[in-house]
Amino acid sequence: MKPLLKKVAKRIHAGVILGALVAVYVGFYLIQTVQHNYQLQQQITQLNGQIKTLQTQTDALKYQIQYYQTNSYQDKEARAKLGLQAPGEGVVILPHSDPTTQTEPNQKAKAAPKKSNWQQWINFLEGHS
């Protein structure tokens, strides 16, 4: 009976080893599948975000196109770019500012001699400007 018991023990031992190997293989495959599904879910989330952003931009462009087709926008652009005016409306043309008139106050400040720092402090403490 002992040899029969040894054969049965060897078969049980081989079955346990084979079962453990199958369990490890299935576990490894399961982990890979879960990881792959997680990565796909991340990509789906990212692409859905991009879709929402693009949809928002598309809506904004649609509204912009509608605005550009309105009469008020066309009138505004005709006035600004072509210098047109409505009947009974007056136009005021302002002259461009001369760059030399803007530098005159700066030239006056440059004309005054620059005092040293300690002289400015003395004038300040004495109450002189």
Write the layout of secondary structure elements.
Layout: H1 2-68, H2 71-82, H3 99-111, H4 117-126
Please tell me about this protein's structure:
The protein is an all-alpha fold and 129 residues long. Helices cover 79% and strands 0% of the residues. The chain has four helices and no strands. The relative contact order is 0.03. The mean pLDDT is 83.
Number of helices: 4
Unreliable stretches covering 5 or more consecutive residues: none
Report the β-strand fraction as a percent range: under 5%
Choose one word for the global shape: elongated
Residue-averaged pLDDT: 83
Distance between the termini: 123 Å
Number of strands: 0
Described by strand count, sense and barrel closure, the largest sheet is: none
Oligomeric composition of the shown chains: single chain
At a glance:
With 129 residues, this protein is mainly α.
Observed structural traits:
129 residues, single chain, mainly alpha
